[in-house]
Amino acid sequence: MQDMSPFAEAGHNDGGRIGEGDRLDRLARSGLLDTEAEDVFDRGVRLATKLLGTRVALLSLVDRDRQFFKAQHGLPEPHSEARETPLTHSFCKHVVESGDVLMIEDARKHPLVSENLAIRDLDVVAYLGVPIVTADGYVLGSFCAIDSQSRAWTGDDVETLQTIAKGVESEIRLRIEVDDRRALQEKADADRARLALVLESTADGIVTIDRQLAVGYANRGARTILGTAGELDGRTLWEVFPTTCGDVFEAMVDRAFATGQTAEATALCSGLGRWLEARAVPSGDKVTLFFRDVSARQRAQESRQLLVRELHHRIKNLFAIVRGMISMAARGASDPGEMAEALQGRLIALARAHDLIRPALSPDLESDYQEIFLGDLVKILVEPYRRQGAGHLTIGGPDLRLGVNSTTHVALFIHELTTNANKYGSLSRAGGSLAIEWTIEGDVVDFRWTETGGPEMASAPDRHGFGCKLVKLCIETQLEGDLSIRWPASGMQLDAGIPLRVIAR
Question: Is the pTM of this model over 0.85?
C-alpha cells in the first residue's frame, strides 16, 4: 500500500505544534508523563501486536524534546527499560504535527523519516500511527504499530489500530475530565472558603431568606448586630428582627421578591435601640439581606436637623434678644458710655457662644475648635444675662476640659437653659438667683443647675417645648448622660450625670 502522509513529499519538518504551550500544558496536566506502566494501557498495545502481527506497539506521548512510552510491547532493551527516547528517534512526533494517520511502508526509503535514528537504533522499518487526541483537540501523542521489515499496511490494519486507539483515547479523556473536575471542585471549594471568610469577617449583617421568610444563612455580623448568641438558621424574619423594624424589612423583602429588583429600607429597631439600614437583593427563590447599624449616622442627622432649627430659631429671635439686652442695659446704666460698655460685652459673649455652636455644622471640626474648659464655657454663655448686683449668679466646679465634639452639645444645652431662665425662670426677676455647679464622681461628671426666686408655679409644665427637647437630646443622646428635672414652687433644678469619656470626646 502506498505511503499516506501529508509529509510524504515535504522532507523533514519539525513544525511548531509539538512546542505549542497549550498542548504541552495539557500533556503535563494529563498526569500520564513519567508514571508507572498500567495494565489498562498495556493491554491495548499487546492487543495491537497480536491483531496486526507486528513486533512492537507503543502508546507514545510526545513532549517538547522527547517521547515517553506510557505503554509498550516488544521494544528492545535498553529502550523498554528507559521507556523514552529523544525526538531524534521519534516517528510519532510527525503524527502530532499532522494530527492525522501516518503510514510508512519502508522508513529507509521514506523522505520524511529516512534519516531518523530510530531506524538504526530501534530497528524501525514499517510504521503505522494514529493520533491520540484530547476532548479539547490537543494531540498528545500516537498509538502506533512498528515492524522491523517493510510492510504494506491495509485499510483493515488502519481500522484495527484506530479502534484500539479509541479505547485508549477514551481512558485518557476520562482521566483528564476527572482531573479537570477535581481541579474545578478544588477551586470552587477554595472560592467558597474565601467567600465564607469575607462574609464572616465583615461587620455588616448578611442573611439569606427564602419565600417563606425563613433564614437560610446568617453571618457573624448579623448575630452581633442583632445581639443573638445562637444560630439564626431556620428562624423566620420576624423572629430575627424586632417587631418595630421587622415589619419594615418584611415589606422590603416582599417587594424584592415581587419586582425582582433590589429594595432598600431604614428602620428604628426600638427593641435593640438601633437604627438599621438594609438592602434586599433577590436571586431566584432567595433574597440576600445586607444590613448595618447606622445609629451614629441617624443621631448625627437628627442633631444637625435640630441644630438647623435652632439656628433658624436664633435668627428669628435675634432682634428681640438684642432689644431686650438694650432695655436691660438702659435700665441699669447711669450714662450712655456705661450702657454701651454693658451692651457690647453681652453681644460679644453671644457671638462667642455662636462660634462654639458653629463647628457642629462645619465639615472640618478640628480647624474651628479651640480648647475650652467647662467653667469658661459657662461664663461665656451666662455672663450676658448677669444682672447688676452681687449674689444672684453662682458658678463653681473643678477644672474640666471639654472635647471638640462635646463642647458643642454642652454649649447648646447651657445656652438653652440660660435663655429659658432669662425668659421664664429665675433670671427674669430682679430677686431671682441661679447656681451652676459640677463635681467629678469616679468616671461621671455630676452637673447641677438650680434656679430659685423665679415666678411661682403651681406644678411642673404640662408640655415640653423645643427648648426642653433640645436639652434632652444634648444630654441623654449626644452626651449619653442621665437627666432629671424637678420643679419647686419658685424655681427649677436640673441634675445630669455625664460620662467623663464622652465629655472628653
Answer: no
